[in-house]
Amino acid sequence: MQGRYSVPGQLQNFNTEKGFKDLDKTAALKQAGQRIWLNILSGAAEEHPSCLCLFVLLSYADLKKFVYWSWFAFPALKPPEPFKVARTATLMQEVGDTTAAEVASACDSWRQPAMSQEEQPAASSSAAPHLPFWLLAKDTSGTWQCLPLTAWATEEGCDVWLCMADPSNNPDHPGWPLRNILLMAAKRWQVTTLSVLCVRDQRGKLDSARSLCLSVVLPSIPSDWEPSGVVGWEANSSGKLAPCQVDLGPSMDPHRLAESAVTLNVSLMRWRAAPSLGIDRLQDLKILLLGAGTLGCAVARVLLGWGVKHIDFVDNSQVAFSNPVRQSLYEFEDCLHGGRPKAEAAADKLRQIYPGVVSQGISLTIPMPGHPVVPSQVDRVQADTQRLAELIEQHDVVYELMDTRESRWLPTVLAAAAGKLVINAALGFDSFLVMRHGGPPSDATGSRESPAKRRLGCYFCNDVVAPLDSTVDRTLEQQCTVARPGLASIAGAIAVELMAATLQHPLGIDAPAAVAGEHVNHEELPLGPVPHMVRGQLSGFSQMCLSGQAFRQCTACSQTVVDQYKQHGWSFLWQALQDPKMLEDLTGLTQLHAETHARGMHHQGTKADIEKDTEDSKHAGNDAGSDDASIPDIDDDWTTL
After folding, report:
1. What pLDDT, on the 0 to 100 scale, is given for residue 277?
2. Residues 592, 553: contact at Cβ < 8 Å?
3. In the prediction, which pLDDT does 478 show?
């Protein structure tokens, strides 16, 4: 059937296969049939013939396996006695070529008013749908004309045919819409015989060689009669009255299947729990993991769970035999022949787990303050520094997951200068720290703002000394990371969730630290308030959220350090790497140490003077006063944790 016809229906989609199968199909079909019958009794079916073609569609989609279930029903009311077809012929056989051409012209004009080529809309996409039933009558002049069903009363007794847009291709039998219109004719028009034209098209025009002319005998319908049953469930491809099932999984690209399944898992969180969750904001991130060890592997796996598709690793070591049991991205084969580079092996494993991920491994040594550099390595250190700066610029979030404290200094400086979000995670034997660095420094940082408005500190903001070589005095067993096996997975998961919550906050990297007991607008904060840092211990299984403001004399993220890097670049970094004490001089920590020492000496002197004056007062019989030396306050902005 060509053309557009209005066919209303009811779509009922189920969330579970059980719900789809357990639905009372008989009751659903009966309810639809009752609606059709009421439309017949009220006359609505004559005003709106489409309501006689009501359909029911049940569906269930298993979006993980790409299996789809559906079942159509086209409700037909059972008449008190079957309809009988007295004669069947094609339109051309029934009336001859000339009259058939006249009837075809009348029907085509009724369904599609004549338009010129220029007037006809493209693909008729905006044209109103046609009515599936109408009347065909010959007027007094012998001209065939089409009329709505409501004109039956005025045309009764004339040569009137009931016309139907027929969807059937069977050469001998009409399609399903005819059943209910015949019952309506028997009930409303009280006719016992009826001429029916089943209109079938060819290239948008009535085809008189295929359209059927039927002479139908209708039963008598008593005034108090009610339908005794409804039929209409469609048979499946096996000829059984059962749902149709389509399994698209085997025919789809497995890579596309994996990508769709990963996206679905994250989308379900938004559909079911957090409607305002911005999943695209997370999935489009470019993540740089500095460190491909126990923490790096744990973080990478959780990032995949969020659907992140771009994850790069930076590491300078090889996979050792002790690694695979603790670091989830490595296998025994990676340890052979001296061990594969960790960054490369981790990136390969991510692509095996999820082919849709874009991941590369970069073997690079991060320069560290206090670690000696021989003259022959200066060019390599400079190249590594430049490469690291480029990587941080190219990524949205930087994770610092290295073993030593000083290895985090250079990435912290570079990320602060680039304004990138940094997530830091560190492990002890049974404790961990996960924190996010605050936003980049600004000229206003030094002003006395309220704590709620000031930026949060970085990993080095509670230090009053420059980072130094922490490995110089370590024995062999002290150089290995010793932590309870479950600790890295916990810290890695919290690190990723902290990033996700931060990026869902309207202020992003500048989001203030969460305050205990504050009201949470889950529409604005779909993942809840965002802490600054999380400290946890497996000993006692405790966890607490803490916060600290940025330290204006920080050796990594302060305005002074960032400005020096922006102005002098490599020359500043090289000097800091060679002589970390320079950072203390630059930021004022050296002066802070001197003032602290002076204050301590002052307190010791004051205590001695007080004791002496007290002893003297016993003999002199009068009060003794002490000097109130003017000692400047220590300018320490780090909030007590």
Report:
1. 87
2. yes
3. 52
Q: Could you tell me if 3 and 130 are in contact, meaning their C-beta atoms sit under 8 angstroms apart?
A: yes
Question: Can you give the pTM of this predicted structure?
Answer: 0.65
Structural contact between residues 287 and 392, judged by C-beta atoms closer than 8 angstroms: no
- The predicted structure's pLDDT at residue 520: 74
Cβ atoms < 10 Å from Cβ of 28: 19
With the CA atoms of 365, 369, 371 and 372 taken in that order, what torsion angle do they form, in degrees rounded to the nearest 10?
110
User: Quick one: pLDDT at residue 251?
Assistant: 74
Concatenating the DSSP letter of every residue in 395-455 gives: -SEEEE--SSSGGGHHHHHHHHHHT-EEEEEEE-SSEEEEEE------GGGGS---GGGSP
480 is catalytic: yes
Supply the DSSP symbol for 151.
Answer: G
Nearest alpha-carbon partner for 194 in 179, 209, 173: 179
Residue 620: what pLDDT? 44
> In angstroms, how far is CA 96 from the centroid of its own chain?
64
3-state secondary structure of 378: helix
Structure tokens at 288: 């740089």
Given the residues 480, 545, 554, 557, the one annotated as active site: 480
Selection from 115, 117, 146, 112 nearest residue 129 by Cα: 112
CA 427 to chain centre: 31
Apex CA 53: angle with CA 52 and CA 55, to 5°? Answer: 125
DSSP class of 141: T
Q: How far apart are CA 287 and CA 469, in angstroms?
A: 28
10-residue stretch averages of pLDDT, the chain, 641 residues long:
73 93 92 94 92 93 88 93 93 92 91 50 48 88 89 77 91 90 93 93 90 94 89 89 88 77 82 84 94 96 94 96 94 95 96 93 94 90 96 97 93 96 95 95 53 79 86 58 90 96 93 80 85 94 93 94 95 93 92 82 58 52 37 37 35
CA distance 325 to 323: 6
CB 227 within 8 A of CB 181: no
Q: Are strands 193-199 and 397-400 parallel, antiparallel or unpaired?
A: unpaired
Total Cβ atoms within 10 A of residue 260: 17
Q: Determine the Cα–Cα distance for residues 212 and 197; give it in Å rounded to an integer.
A: 6
